[in-house]
Amino acid sequence: MHLSQLRLQNFRCFEAADLQPDPAINVITGDNASGKTTLLEAIYFLGRGQSFRQSGPRPAIRAGENAFTVTAEIAVPDGRSHRLGVSRDKRGIRYRRDGNSDTSRIDLINTLPLQMVGPNVHRLLEQGPRYRRHFLDWGVFHVEHAFFPAWRRFRRALKQRNRALKARLPKADIVVWDAELVRAAEIVDASRRAYIDHLYNNLPAQAAKLLGDEPIVLEYDCGWRGEDGYGAALAAGLDQDTRAGFTQQGPHRADLRVSIASAAARDWVSRGQQKILTTAMLLTQARLLHARRHVQPVLLIDDMAAELGVRYRQVLAEEIASLGGQCFLTFLEPQLVPDVIKQGAMFHVERGAVTRG
Fold this sequence. Notes:
6-stranded mixed sheet, alpha/beta
């Protein structure tokens, strides 16, 4: 699948923009603060229903205007197309797919799978488990169909159990949620483990092309202690949960640790190498999605040249080109663009205007 048309209206610095992207490589150049990242953000809105910036959707409305709109035509392999739209005004944010006003974020995610490689991609290795859970669950969501319904049931039961814990209700009113938590957690955990097996089988080959032959190890922490299952862990931790006022163990505390040559990846490699490794992980996810579901996610790569030397840029560009899907990459200057991706569409952003050529 790919975006065949992208339109922006009153989105950040753009009063209006209309692009017909290439189905493969799209390179966007321009000075800092010219709007390159904003174009990626607009696409991200269409595939995730939210921004990747910390400021959220409301500041995305162009100064002096009351609303923004982002729409796109999505071409799918069977020859059909979908029209996606995201708009935001003072009443809130709304999504549409093919004109349907009941569209949800999940509808967008299913229609336009995205992979984002941004300036803060190193957080996947350096910072807390939630970044790695997010990485893991994106892949599990798209590949293991039992995952999302179970994850939704787990979150619903967890919310009720935590509410009972916070209110200091009797233990009988707390443990009444344990059976549902366990049933859902077992499916979530099994889905994650199955996906990690696929990831582990494919990641070394992808990473070797980018980082060399050092062994990469993925270690999954399910989020609870003990070998007797989640039910036993909940029972053993009930007193601690009661004192804390929330459920301290479960799939919501899971982690995926990444090691290279027996050392934590965040300690073993430079910031540039961290970017290469995390990109290798994301590209592996993209290849898995294509292999398992015949879906090619759209790649968004912001400031690809940052912290990467010429050799790394070239190797990474070759891997991106070999995927065969649609990709949008930003660069400060055309001179930084590796030759292998110069054959794609070239766009230039300046003063809120986009030109092709």
